[in-house]
Amino acid sequence: MTNTLLSLGHGYSARALARLLLPQGWRILGTTRSPQKAAALAETGVEPVLWEEAALKAALSQANHLLISAGPDEDGDPSLNLIGDALAAHAPDLYWAGYLSTTGVYGDHHGAWVDETTPLTPGTDRGAQRVEAEAAWGAIPGLPLHVFRLAGIYGPGRGPFEKVRSGQARQIIKRGQVFSRIHVDDIAQVLAASLERPNPGAVYNVCDNDPAPPQDVIAHAAELLHLPEPPKVDFKKAEMSEMARSFYAESKRVSNERIKTELGIELLYPDYRAGLQALLEEEMRSKDTQSAP
Fold first, then answer.
1. Element (H, E) at 32
2. What is the DSSP letter of 157?
3. Rounded to two decimals, what is the model's pTM?
4. What positions does the domain NAD-dependent epimerase/dehydratase occupy (predicted)?
5. Cβ–Cβ under 8 Å, residues 102 and 125
6. What are phi and psi of 65, to 5 degrees?
7. Cβ(180)–Cβ(103) under 8 Å?
8. For the chain, what are the domain ranges?
9. How far is CA 177 from CA 46, 80, 166, 216, 245, in A?
10. Which is nearest to 276 in space by CA: 226, 225, 231, 229?
11. CA separation for the pair 28, 262 (Å, rounded)
12. How far is it, in rounded angstroms, from Cα 193 to Cα 207?
């Protein structure tokens, strides 16, 4: 039997997983809301599925694994809203289902450690919506659900280097502020490990070993680029969007012990220093390839 994964909301993390699974012979069905993007998706080896009820139901009927990346909003979970009945009916036929959530469900802990047993006390609307979505997916009878609470995601195309190069980067200083992070390739390996070792009902924090102040990451990126350290700005005086400011409303250190003990994960990028170094080296290799005759 062919392993077939339906990826609902085939975004940045799902694409990284697809790059691991496709060479292993997996069939990946990935959703897109844009017919124009379908061709580009197909070029990666993923079979595009338009985000419409009939197409989603047809794809679901062919899947024996399910990944949910599409996030909720004030109207609830978009996948459940569109094809909830079909998902409930097909749930017993799935070997594995994974829901990509966020460590934002834990809320603010003033820099203290949290793990998967920590009560969910979200402090933002986004966090509360994720808590509700986790519960809604978990309430589907027979669904072999695994929840992955992702820290701040970075990786190719999502690093701090361009902002530092442009001179627009700032070190926002808020006393005691720490964030947890995760490289997208480590997200992919965690998901792949879970696919190999299904444990329905499991919840995993997906983050690296080193929760760190955000200004340390910016300063290190500048150091790697041999550029001046970006200016330091007090959080209270910093100009930023409401979305950006909301991230600073929560400070916590997220434990990743469970992905190591239960899934046997050895992180590719155990901290931001290793991750940023790898991103920079990848950039340099890409430039060398493009400039080669």
1. strand 27-32
2. T
3. 0.96
4. 10-207
5. no
6. -140, 150
7. yes
8. 4-154+181-207+256-268
9. 39, 35, 25, 11, 12
10. 225
11. 26
12. 15
Q: From CA 279, how far away is CA 286, in angstroms rounded?
A: 11
Helix axes 78-90, 125-138, angle to 10 degrees: 10
Domain 4-154+181-207+256-268: CATH superfamily is NAD(P)-binding Rossmann-like Domain (3.40.50.720)
Angle ∠(125,126,131) on CA atoms, nearest 5: 95
**Hunting for tokens 């469970």 — which residue is that?**
258
Output the six-digit token pair for 225. Answer: 């680029």
Say if CB 134 and CB 72 are below 8 A apart.
no
Q: For residue 223, what are its two tokens?
A: 């150091």
Tens-binned pLDDT, residue by residue, of the chain (293 aa): 799 999 999 999 999 999 999 999 999 999 999 888 999 999 999 999 999 999 999 999 999 999 999 999 999 999 999 999 999 999 999 999 999 999 999 999 999 999 999 999 999 999 999 999 999 999 999 999 999 999 999 999 998 999 999 999 999 999 999 999 999 999 999 999 999 999 999 999 999 999 999 999 999 999 999 999 999 999 999 988 888 888 899 999 999 999 999 999 999 999 999 999 999 999 888 776 665 56
